[in-house]
Amino acid sequence: MANVLSEEKTLAIIRCLVEGNSIRSIERITGASRNTVMKVLVRFGNACEEYLDARLNNLPLEHVQMDEIWTFVGKKESKLTHREKREGEKGSQYLFLGIDTTTKLIASYRLGKRTFATTKDFVDDLEGRLHRAPDTMGNQRPQVSTDGWPSYVPTIETAFRGEVRHGVLIKNYRDPAVGRYAPPEMTRATRINIKNVESDRSICTSHIERHNLTIRTFLKRFTRLSLGFSKKVENLRAAISLHVAYYNFCWRLREKGTSGKLTPTPAQQIGIEEERWSVEKLVETVTDFQEYQEVVRRAAALARRLGL
After folding, report:
1. Domains in the chain: how many in total?
2. Dihedral of CA 289/295/301/303: which sign?
3. How far is Cα 93 from Cα 231, in angstroms, rounded to an integer?
4. Is 292 inside a domain boundary?
5. What's the CA gap between 53 and 47, in Å, rounded?
6. Disulfide engineering: 75 pairs with which of 79, 169, 182, 246, CB 3.0-4.6 Å?
7. What pLDDT was estimated at residue 153?
């Protein structure tokens, strides 16, 4: 008889994953083996990626902040063999994120090496998810704020076909080397108006940089100076998709200037969902979507075989 994991235990594993528990701690909490926990993560994480790709479209964004956050897979970059460097699956990996300044929705994300190709893939994906109608200021495209990574300028210009307000924020530090265990002292912030930004003061990456803390807290694979790194890039990608789905549809941020008052979820604020989802609702919705997509794929395959 097959050993089928119960729905209750599957839900318990996913709850622990989105709360930032490690694989081994989930094993101790739920009684499921490490291999079972990883299978649940990869299967449901991949389903979340497919669901997010279908849902995050036609988004009415006005100001998107972009940034990239570092982690590694398997081993550090300096320990890679020549073959591993060519394959690109091990070593340093960067998560590119695009977050809406107003609603804090993660509109797009990409995992890969910090290269022009990955940047282009990320920017093209973000552009394809935007609403085409003018925003409240009459602009056809949102404002985009980035750091000084050189690949952003040409890829954004090409993807948005010149119809973009782009600003770059470069932060200068007195001694960046001291930031290993504590943040270095920032001496100057330089804002560069690349194209059509109405006010240089609106160029900002503070919200996306603050979200990096959320990622490192709830995705242990990004926690520095720890043993929580991924052994396979597929596992890392699945964990990221699970976090993004949970964050967009279940997460509630605290309002600035209030004593603990919580906002609606990013998905509610952007208008693609009417209510806050529980973890149970997330699992149910993504699972139903996955089953529907499987039916569609089987029907399409049958139609091809019959020549319809």
Report:
1. 1
2. negative
3. 12
4. no
5. 10
6. 79
7. 94
